[in-house]
């Protein structure tokens, strides 16, 4: 019997948490590990285990999805490059998924409600953030992904806030009640897989050669003078 959901594999390495997910016959098979320095070495073995758990081969995947960013420069490049290689090998399309949207989706499933602000620690005193609203089985972007100082994130009583930016810059989010905080949420391949299914249903997806990371910052480090001007300890 044909199952309406596609079979796909998803990868995310945008933070210290590396994860993979295989969606097959409506069931998710996931693997994860922590330690950003080992992502490139651990992701493919994790994917192989997830495929084995699902009882399928790489060629059985209809598409590949990845967390395209924002996040760690090295991490988003790793996920993009791995997915490109896998997709080229079996001639499949890829689906880029914004990591902040994946965080919002995970937060909603954890009980955060339909209005979610995702805030990821971008280091150097800044955060990546975006605001999303869930309605009629789909997400709408209210505030596009941006890079700013944590205190510039526009919070209000309507939205829950998720992500490690809440922990990294507690003073900026001190006005949030406990039930509106979801600091444990990080991008995960499970959410990326779920969002990729919806994207495929909308006819989205790109050729492997067109897969790109989403970068919001051109610099990966501040000079000493910039750190002193920003009040960031060297």
Question: Secondary structure elements and their pairing?
Answer:
Blueprint: E1 8-12, E2 17-24, E3 27-34, H1 39-54, E4 63-69, H2 73-90, E5 93-98, H3 99-109, E6 115-123, E7 126-135, E8 138-149, E9 160-162, H4 165-168, E10 181-182, H5 189-201, H6 224-230
Parallel strand pairs: 1-4, 4-5, 6-9, 9-10
Antiparallel strand pairs: 1-2, 2-3, 6-7, 7-8
Helix pairs in contact: 3-5
How would you describe this structure to a colleague?
The chain is an alpha/beta fold and about 230 residues long. It has two domains: about 10-100 and about 185-210, ATPase, nucleotide binding domain (Nucleotidyltransferase, domain 5, 2-Layer Sandwich), CATH 3.30.420.40; about 100-180, 2-Layer Sandwich (Nucleotidyltransferase, domain 5), CATH 3.30.420.40. The chain is built from six helices and ten strands. It has a five-stranded mixed β-sheet with strand order 3-2-1-4-5, sandwiched between helices. A five-stranded mixed β-sheet has the order 8-7-6-9-10. Strand 6 (about 115-125) and strand 7 form a beta hairpin. The longest helix has 18 residues, at about 75-90. The model is unreliable at about 220-234 (pLDDT under 50).
């Amino acid at each position: 019997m044909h199952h309406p959901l596609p079979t796909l594999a998803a990868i995310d390495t945008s933070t210290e948490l590396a994860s993979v997910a295989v969606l097959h016959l409506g069931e998710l098979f996931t693997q994860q590990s922590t330690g950003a320095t080992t992502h490139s070495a651990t992701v493919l073995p994790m994917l192989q285990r997830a495929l084995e758990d699902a009882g399928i081969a790489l060629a059985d995947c209809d598409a590949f999805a990845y967390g395209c960013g924002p996040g760690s420069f090295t991490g988003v490049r790793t996920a993009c490059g791995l997915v490109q290689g896998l997709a080229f090998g079996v001639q499949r399309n890829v689906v880029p998924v914004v990591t902040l949207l994946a965080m919002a989706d995970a937060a909603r499933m954890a009980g955060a409600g339909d209005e979610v602000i995702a805030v990821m620690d971008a280091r150097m005193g800044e955060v990546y953030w975006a605001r999303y609203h869930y309605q009629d089985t789909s997400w709408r972007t209210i505030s596009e992904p941006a890079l700013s100082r944590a205190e510039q994130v526009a919070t209000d009583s309507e939205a829950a806030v998720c992500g490690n930016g809440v922990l990294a810059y507690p003073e900026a989010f001190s006005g949030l009640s406990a039930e509106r905080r979801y600091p444990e949420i990080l991008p995960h391949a499970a959410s990326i897989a779920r969002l990729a299914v919806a994207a495929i249903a909308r006819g989205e997806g790109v050729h492997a050669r067109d897969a790109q990371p989403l970068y919001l910052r051109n610099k990966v480090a501040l000079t000493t003078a910039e750190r002193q001007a920003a009040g960031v300890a060297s």
